[in-house]
Specification:
alpha/beta; Rossmann fold; four-stranded parallel beta sheet; 13 strands; about 20% strand; binds iron/sulfur cluster
């Protein structure tokens, strides 16, 4: 049984009878069992089978047919009502942070991680303090409700540490790269599972982005992509960007895929949906997909020296 008595009690307390379930791809296989548990407890259950990439991607259509949506794996990024978030916590041996200590020089660091590991922050701070490291953990933006939590679209908890050396705990390279570009700090990434430690440097990414802006210059039409997803829809930003160029066309797109971009046939796009689409997925796109800030550089209203990583604020 994976539906805990606490969860069932909370659903009852909220008066929910019809419950929708949603999870990102990596957790989706938990949904059928959860659905059966909840059905046995007397709830009517609907499972969302559509792709889900984050708490920014709530199945609002399904919620119209339910009293409440249980969203697994993420913390809230906005104030959408009738959502019950169930973060999927992931543990690791917190002593792994000791491997990163030789990389720091000042004796004081900022600490950031992703939501799955945010519950380990107090223990990690204790371990670092014991070896004489002063640790700053900061509150993030409205999109990151846990202290020290960052997202691929919000590095505020890193910026607010004010530290010049930052430790990122987690997997993947995108988050620490984002922290590095957003803060200009020395960023050490510690993968708690492989125990690999590395200093990340955003320079190479910035050189690639500069080349992409150059490649986009001859484009005679430019699609400004707007997402209808609950926590990604930056319509005002898209309209502002569109006003910068007579070549710009607003394009609403729920799922951005290479085929969709090819079918539209435009020679360049600007992404106002999830910021990671432009950075992480560029190799998949048939043409340049710029961030809003890169489009401003293309239009001459921002200099490359004022480059900022794209975040949803
Ligand atoms: S917008 Fe992108 S990075 Fe931000 S929460 Fe959604 S999927 Fe994650």
């Amino acid at each position: 049984m994976i539906a805990s008595s606490d969860l069932i009690a909370e659903l009852k307390q909220r008066g929910a009878e019809r419950v929708a379930l949603q999870a990102p791809e990596g957790l989706k296989r938990r949904l059928p069992e959860l659905a059966l548990d909840l059905q046995s407890a007397g709830f009517t259950v609907f499972v969302s089978g559509d792709p889900c990439y984050g708490a920014c991607d709530l199945d609002i259509d399904l919620l119209k047919d339910a009293d409440l949506l249980i969203h697994l794996g993420h913390a809230p990024v906005d104030k959408t009502e009738r959502i019950l978030y169930d973060i999927f916590r992931m543990d690791f041996d917190p002593e792994v942070v000791l491997n990163a200590i030789p990389y720091f020089t000042t004796g004081r660091i900022g600490l950031v991680t992703t939501v799955q590991h945010a519950h380990l922050i107090p223990e990690i701070c204790r371990i670092l303090k014991e070896v004489g490291i002063s640790v700053t953990v900061a509150e993030g933006s409205d999109r990151t409700p846990y202290p020290g939590q960052i997202l691929g679209c919000s590095f505020e908890a890193a910026r607010r540490t004010g530290e010049t050396e930052i430790l990122y705990l987690g997997t993947g390279v995108f988050h620490p790269l984002g922290v590095q570009i957003a803060t200009g700090a020395k960023v050490i990434a510690c993968d708690p599972y492989t125990k690999q430690i590395e200093e990340v440097n955003g320079e190479r990414l910035l050189r690639r982005r500069y080349a992409l802006i150059e490649k986009a210059k001859p484009a005679e039409k430019i699609g400004i992509l707007v997402s209808p997803k609950s926590g990604q829809a930056r319509r005002e930003l898209a309209a502002k960007l569109a006003s910068l160029s007579p070549k710009a066309i607003l394009v609403q797109l729920r799922e951005v895929t290479p085929d969709q971009l090819l079918n539209l046939g435009l020679p360049c796009y600007v992404n106002t949906a999830c910021p990671r689409l432009a950075y992480d997925d560029q190799v998949r796109w048939p043409v340049p997909v710029l961030t809003p800030q890169e489009f401003e550089i293309l239009c001459g209203v921002r200099g490359f020296e004022d480059y900022e990583v794209d975040e949803i604020k």
